[in-house]
Write a structure and sequence with these properties.
4 helices, two-stranded antiparallel sheet
Length: about 120
């Protein structure tokens, strides 16, 4: 009686006769997947963040309230964390000015610092 040898038969025989090699292969594939997935997600997040930052670089003017001048200066110049809101109530006035293409109110939040 002749038995047909197929791919499933060969795979089963390989798993049966070489269990250590099969286990090492499965573990290696799992490790690669566990490393590759978060790395891909992190890379995509960094790429999106850079694109957003580059899109904001085109600003020629920043309108702030007099009460936020110190906070904005320390944040933009020194990079100090601070929380302030670029009030959206004047966006209509700024947008009506000649030569202004886009206007957007911004919210700047300081990150939490833990001890």
């Amino acid at each position: 009686m002749s038995r047909r040898i197929g791919i499933l038969y060969l795979a089963r025989q390989n798993l049966k006769h070489k269990p250590f090699r099969s286990l090492v292969t499965v573990v290696a594939v799992a490790v690669v997947a566990l490393v590759l997935f978060p790395t891909t997600i992190l890379g995509k997040s960094v790429s999106d963040s850079i694109e957003l930052g580059v899109a904001r670089l085109g600003a020629d003017m920043m309108v702030i309230s007099p009460s936020n001048v110190a906070k904005v200066s320390s944040t933009l110049i020194a990079g100090n964390p601070s929380t302030f809101v670029m009030d959206g109530s004047v966006t209509g006035q700024v947008a009506a000015m000649e030569g202004v293409e886009k206007v957007s109110p911004q919210l700047y939040l300081a990150t939490l610092s833990s001890g």
